[in-house]
Amino acid sequence: MAQLTPERHQSILARLEDGPVTVQVLADRLHVSKETIRRDLDLLESQGSLHRVHGGAVPAGLVSRTETSLHDRLRRHTAQKQRIAEAARGFLPPADGGSMIFDAGTTTEALADLLAAESQVEGKHRYLITNAVPIAQKLSTSPGVQVEILGGSVRGVTGAAVGPDTITALQSRRADVAFIGTNGVDATFGLSTPDSSEAAVKSAHICAARHRVLLADSSKLGQTTLVQFAALTDIDVLITDAEPVADLATALAEAEVQVVVA
After folding, report:
1. For FRET with 85, which of 26, 239, 247, 262 sits at 20 to 30 Å CA-CA?
2. Fold identical between 5-63 and 78-261?
3. H or E stretch at 28
4. What is the pTM of this model?
5. Is-contact 229 199, C-beta < 8 A?
6. Closest by alpha carbon to 219, among 183, 246, 247, 248?
7. pLDDT tens, position by position, for the chain (262 residues)?
8. CATH class of the domain at 78-261
């Protein structure tokens, strides 16, 4: 017999005490559809009770090296990412020759979608540097953007080029603005991501720009993952969808980071 929603949530959390769980196993054991379990996991993640991964979930305390697939991340927090992308348009460089860096990530990709939909005056364009294969593909035919994709080894889970070649190329660039993604924004640990190779490229993105804009939905605020790639003082602007909690808000203010709530 299927359980009521609160009872089902308790059962899911109880099973997580033993480690990761899959959608299929939960659906079978709790006698509900996989879609119901996915909705349960999304809600429990929004409450901070667990962390969603491809095909299931892991306990909230085991996330420092966990990465969800690009496909899964594209389906999550879409409304928030859209609002953040809209707000980020105000920080784009001039259309007549401005240069920008787009980090890999689903929120930066949402900004790329907006740029792809823009119509530009003939002969005017922005110059884009990116290590994100999906972003380069989206903007490669845009009349308003000239695209340079950085070389390197492509990570399938994120679609990002990483490695020494990527970093070397960035060391000889200086763009007007960089739009950076992150997996965590913490008052003391700063900005972090699960993978050291992606962390190195993110750090290089930050060093290669005059102005640094962090795009992070509120699920990333107060979170830490394994590898720090920047301090809060390394960014100029944070665009998010909710006010940061008190300790993070204080740390951002002390770091003189402009916070934009979309």
Report:
1. 247
2. no
3. helix 23-30
4. 0.74
5. yes
6. 183
7. 456 788 899 899 888 877 678 888 899 889 999 999 999 998 888 877 887 776 778 777 655 555 565 555 555 568 899 999 999 999 999 998 999 999 999 999 999 999 988 766 566 789 999 999 999 999 998 888 999 999 999 998 889 999 999 999 999 999 999 999 999 998 988 999 988 999 999 999 999 999 999 999 988 898 888 889 999 999 999 999 999 999 999 999 999 999 999 9
8. alpha beta
Instruction: Please tell me the CATH code under which domain 5-63 is placed.
Output: 1.10.10.10
Q: Look at residue 37 and give its three-state secondary structure.
A: helix
- 28, two tokens: 């079978």
Report the run of H or E that residue 177 belongs to, with start and end: strand 175-180
Mapping DSSP to helix (H, G, I), strand (E, B) and coil, where does residue 26 land? Answer: helix
Q: Domain ranges in the chain?
A: 5-63, 78-261
Structure tokens, 191: 């900005």
